[in-house]
Design goal:
Helix content is 45%, strand content 22%. By secondary structure, the chain is of the alpha/beta class.
């Protein structure tokens, strides 16, 4: 056997998510990179770890046993690392954060400096939909959550991190038609929505109601990345968070369409349950944000401040 810890870590995430795509997103890897590591691990076993039926990936019973073994191995490795660093006087432990999907463009910048400063802290960051983020928080499964709309049904505390601005966007080919439209452009051209429950969709629908805009041509997609690619391809317009559009704006793949009442502005908040007892790692991170968040914004998000 010649498997690596990286292969075990990737396979464990595949087993947990039942998806190569989701595992790649959580691990901040490309899908081909994850597929290659899965293949390299599989080559060391004669019995299949996974099987694909239709389009769904399943973990075989043997694969489930290997995933359990991988989990134990990785936990022991983490324990060894923490003990070694603790003996040297470093802060150790695990920091767990649930992040709504668009927050993947925000959260890493508020983590990198902290993790470089405290190499003994391991990060577990789950990037998922808003419903799952809030459920993880409600069940006290995470230290913090990143959201753009504060939940009304939970007792929480929060640190505001960054403005979340939503603009109407189009690609180059549609922008000319948009500017020549008579009446409300969002009534006459296809409008692309996020899925039900998305905070972006909630803000978008609230804006349409306030402006008494009736949308006759609707498309629905399940991620901001999918919506962005659909806009670039010319399938329609959408109201999207600016935070995920930096490269496309710089490359002139999309344009912001000026509309009265836009942008919609909310705030990215890092939230936690009121009364939560922080671990040393979580407490250190809370203190880090209180002290350094303004310098992080100035260094990494000046471009974001220029759009208003």
């Amino acid at each position: 056997m010649n498997y690596t810890l990286n292969q075990l870590r990737i396979f464990l995430k595949i087993a947990e998510t039942k998806s190569i795509t989701k595992a790649a997103e959580i691990l901040f890897l490309t899908q081909p990179a994850v597929s290659i590591q899965l293949k390299n691990l599989q080559n060391q076993f004669e019995i299949p770890l996974t099987e694909v039926i239709g389009r769904q990936l399943y973990i075989t019973p043997f694969g489930e046993e290997i995933a359990e073994a991988a989990k134990r191995i990785l936990e022991e490795v983490a324990t060894m690392k923490h003990k070694s660093l603790a003996y040297k006087g470093f802060l150790t432990g695990k920091l767990t954060i649930a992040v709504v999907s668009t927050g993947k463009y925000v959260m890493p910048y508020f983590l990198s400096g902290f993790l470089q400063r405290h190499e003994g802290i391991d990060l577990n960051m789950d990037v998922t939909n808003r419903y799952k983020v809030l459920k993880s928080l409600e069940k006290n499964e995470v230290d913090f959550a990143l959201v753009s709309v504060l939940p009304e049904n939970l007792q929480i505390e929060a640190i505001p991190l960054l403005e979340n601005k939503l603009f109407l966007i189009s690609n180059k080919s549609l922008s000319g038609k948009v500017l020549n439209q008579k009446g409300n452009i969002m009534e006459n051209l296809p409008l692309i929505y996020r899925e039900q429950g998305s905070a972006t969709r909630q803000e978008m629908e609230s804006f349409l109601v306030k402006k008494n805009i009736t949308v006759t041509k609707k498309l629905q997609l399940t991620s901001n990345e999918a919506v962005k690619q659909a806009v670039i391809a010319g399938l329609g317009l959408s109201i999207m968070p600016l935070i995920g559009l930096k490269n496309e704006l710089l490359d002139d793949e999309i344009e912001i369409i000026p509309v009265k009442g836009l942008p919609i502005t909310t705030f990215w908040h890092l939230i936690w349950l009121k009364g939560k007892k922080f671990t040393p790692a979580a407490k250190a991170y809370h203190n880090y944000l209180e002290q350094d968040k303004n310098s992080i914004i100035k260094e990494n998000f000046q471009w974001h401040q220029d759009y208003h």
